[in-house]
Prior knowledge:
Strand order of the largest sheet: 1-2-3-9
Structural class: alpha/beta
CATH architecture of the domain at 39-138 and 212-241: Alpha-Beta Barrel
Order of helices and strands: HEHHHEHEHEEEEEHHEH
Distance between the termini: 71 Å
Oligomer: single chain
Strand content: 5-15%
Helix content: 25-40%
Shape: elongated
Number of strands: 9
Radius of gyration: 26 Å
Largest sheet: 4 strands, parallel
CATH superfamily of the domain at 39-138 and 212-241: Glycosidases
Number of helices: 9
CATH class of the domain at 39-138 and 212-241: Alpha Beta
Amino acid sequence: MDLRKLLHPVCRVVGLLASLVLAQYAHAQAVTQGPAPKWWHNAVIYEIYPRSFQDSNGDGIGDLNGITQRLNYLQALGVDAIWIGPMFPSPQVDFGYDISDYENVDPQYGTLADFDHLLAEARSRNIRIILDMVLNHTSDQHPWFKGAAASRSDPRHDWYVWNDGVKDAAGTLHPPNNWISLFGGSAWQWVPAVSQYYYHEFYRAQPDLNWRNPRSRAGDAGHSQILARSRGDRVQVGCDHNSVRRRAATQ
């Protein structure tokens, strides 16, 4: 019997196992020697939709003061942060996800003073506040969009996603493509005042922001009335999962 032939496959298996062990060791070293994890990597985050969480004044609608009343309960659960759904002024076409003013609190949820109180009470319990800013789009009632839809020369016109559309052989104008809104119907809406279509991934009343435009991004980051109050505790959370489609729409 040729011992070398017998040992050859055994050596190959041993070599493969040794390679796997070394790879696992290298990976473990990279993980342990990598950058320190961010606070949210291991945090317990509790999402709250303010309308349905806790009503503090008996009007049937949850509010910021209701959240404050429940902080001891959330602390007892071991919560590290609460993620508050949209609490900004809104026409409520999409239950607050169509924001018309990023600088204030919707009156049905309370006031800026109520937000300050919630923030202070949460801090005292080492609970962070995360605000869902809905940075994917605005309401069509937001002053930005009202100006953008009134004139192509408006400074904020290109803060949104516009397209001139396409004409068929008969000269009839159509949307630039067959994209469908997540809520049904075409994702493009014609605006006669500017002779263009705007893109809306969700409802027609929720025109998408153009994140390819740095001025639009700067505008979204400048919601100082709310964010300045957070003094670094907040994390902005947006809804921008389909920016690739919007980039394609403007090319």
